[in-house]
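Please complete every field before forwarding. Incomplete forms are returned to the sender.

SECTION A: IDENTIFIERS
Entry label: holo-274
Bound molecule: zinc ion
Molecule representation: SMILES string

SECTION B: INPUTS
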Amino acid sequence: MLCCCDVPHALGRRGLLAMAIAAAAMPRHGNAAPGSAGAPDPALIADLVVANHILFDQGVVDGFGHVSVRHDKDPNRYLLARSMAPALVVADDIMEFDLDSTPVDPRGRAVYLERFIHGEIYKLRPDVVAIVHSHSPSVIPFADSKITLRPMNHIAGFLGTGAPVFDIRVAGGPATDMLIRNNALGKALAATLGPHPVTLMRGHGSVAVAQSIRHVVFRAVYTEVNARVEAEALAMGGKPEFLNAQEAAAAMKTNDGLVGRPWELWKRHAEGKS
Ligand SMILES: [Zn+2]
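SECTION C: PREDICTED COMPLEX
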């Protein structure tokens, strides 16, 4: 189910070290916690750790936000860090959850309040392998206004089908704290996402989904970039001419084959700082 892009081609010393730590940290089949799907591929854990670091380094997440991946041994499980700042995540912080977002082996660790975003999207979208939730700042104006986020250039072709806006008031009423803190809200958010790669969240942030960790990092980064560029175009006073649907679809298809290039750059930049 995982794309081959999830397997590092050139690990390097840091990559090998991360894989070794991951292999030591996650439960084995023989002594896994009851109900566990078993140890994920260490390369998958290593990529998830790197994704956390890249998303911080690229300004998508800060102390908040999270990235998950579907378990490679069981599509009804997903992997997500314990509640902590993404930039500080190491392999030992990665936890296994079922699709109701209950941790399989919590061991007293705090979990993200908004983990239900992940479980409910994985339930609704069997094609989704990785998810990013963030509050990346340039996206917020589009979540809070009627101005639609559309692809400004080919790199953001994945936005060609639009980014629907989730309004928590519809499912949660007028007095929530805006967080997706239960399965009902997660299910409503997943329904708004529908078949799209990105959904915006009024008064909150956004969610990106994709077929692999590398693809979802690409989409999360370029959702933020596209929002910044679109805002600049709007500030110029004109009316941006976006990619049309055919151009966007063709560009997305091309870019989906190229996500490894920025991944390697972002990885080197992020890990060089850690
Ligand atoms: Zn949030």
